[in-house]
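Transcriptional regulator: structure, please.
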Amino acid sequence: MDIETLVNITCKAWSLAILAALHEGVPGRQAQLLTATGAGRTAFAQSVTHLVDLGLVERNPGHGHPLRPEFRLTGAGQDIAAIAHALTEAAAASQHRDLLRRAWTVPVLALLQAPRTFNEIGRSLGSITNRALSQALKSLEACGWVTRTVDEDARPPRAFYRATATGAAIARAAGLGRREEPALADETA
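Here you go.
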């Protein structure tokens, strides 16, 4: 999955939770999905509509009531739902797992498998504002998912951010670094 797709999916609070629930086999009816995710009706409806617009979820034809439709994953949605499930599993034991519902948490963590500066992260995400990035990094640092180190030898000193602990597990689950895995395998051989 590329960073733009990840940003687009996570821009709605409950998208990852809905995809993960469908991947786990939760029936696609609204009541079961609401119970499994803990979402409110309005936020749930917005997230499902967003996933339908992205082509990841579709109404299950011939099932459900017009006012209470049943949903299922599309072919493309199945692959991304597996990633969403891995992301939620990586954060499951953390008391801060609700951070996954914030729009920029997963995209920022996905970029921080290797140390990056604030500006590098911002350029990679494109549409994020400096304020939103700053707030995301502060909240991730406060919960211990990201560490900030300062290179005092550089002029001016530069801060580097890197995903750690649960943040690193989430970053790996996002799969952005999978293209780099063959190089890592060569180094260990």
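Notes: Residues 3-85 form a domain with the Arc Repressor Mutant, subunit A fold (CATH 1.10.10.10).
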